[in-house]
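wait is this the right file?? whatever heres the structure
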């Protein structure tokens, strides 16, 4: 299931994108939002951290929370997010909109299995889509994503494809009644595949970033794999590293 603060962050992101909170205006105070959503202030603070990391708001003591942008952006060209947790990846779904290109059922041959990191002969529901920044129809597409969902979930996932706006891991969690406990991620450089170029308004072979994510459902079963292709300069991936031991040298 989607965490409460991620759901609140999504609602606020949509409200900002739709103009209910305009750029330059102040969001309601924490206590007001806590009362509105019937949650604790700590949950509101967690949602605010997601909006802050996405560049949508700024926060200053005694000055309130100011809306800085109505869509997630970095320098006007790149979609930038700090994806350091499962909840942050869920927030990616809240900040973007999916445009499904086609849906197929596939059997992984040796080549595809090697690319996905799964067993040859395994069956998957493949959903191909283009992602765009929520509320900004003029922005270039962020990425092309091929999502492979374990075929045992396809009967319940397929009817929800058009009306579900989060990431599919959340949908699988709600169907299974179990949590995604781990996401394994691999990032590499690649040339943009030919068939993805036109929908992404790019050129075949353009420099791109390929991100593979494997979603493991409790206790440890691989239920979803995604392959995302981001054209160069449209996506910035930020990772923050800290030391576990903060003692003196």
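ok assuming it is, sequence goes like this
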């Amino acid at each position: 299931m989607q965490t409460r603060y991620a759901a609140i962050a999504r609602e606020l992101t949509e409200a900002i994108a739709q103009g209910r909170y305009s750029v330059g205006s102040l969001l309601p105070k924490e206590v007001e939002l806590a009362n509105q959503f019937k949650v604790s202030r700590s949950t509101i603070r967690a949602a605010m951290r997601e909006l802050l990391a996405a560049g949508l708001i700024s926060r200053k003591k005694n000055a309130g929370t100011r809306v800085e942008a109505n869509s997630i952006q970095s320098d006007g060209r790149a979609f930038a997010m700090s994806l350091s947790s499962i909840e942050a990846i869920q927030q990616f779904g809240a900040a973007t909109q999916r445009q499904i290109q086609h849906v197929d059922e596939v059997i992984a041959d040796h080549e595809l299995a090697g690319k996905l990191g799964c067993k040859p002969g395994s069956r998957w529901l493949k959903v191909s889509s283009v992602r765009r920044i929520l509320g900004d129809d003029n922005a270039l597409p962020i990425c092309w994503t091929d999502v492979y969902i374990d075929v045992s979930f396809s009967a319940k996932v397929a009817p929800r494809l058009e009306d579900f706006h989060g990431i599919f891991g959340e949908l699988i969690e709600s169907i299974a009644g179990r949590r995604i406990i781990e996401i394994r991620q691999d990032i590499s450089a690649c040339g943009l595949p030919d068939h993805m170029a036109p929908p992404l308004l790019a050129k075949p072979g353009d420099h791109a970033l390929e991100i593979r994510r494997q979603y493991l459902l409790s206790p440890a079963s691989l239920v979803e794999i995604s392959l995302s292709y981001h054209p160069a300069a449209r996506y910035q991936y930020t990772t923050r590293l800290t030391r576990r031991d903060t003692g003196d040298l």
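The chain is about 30% helix and 35% strand. so i think its the right one actually
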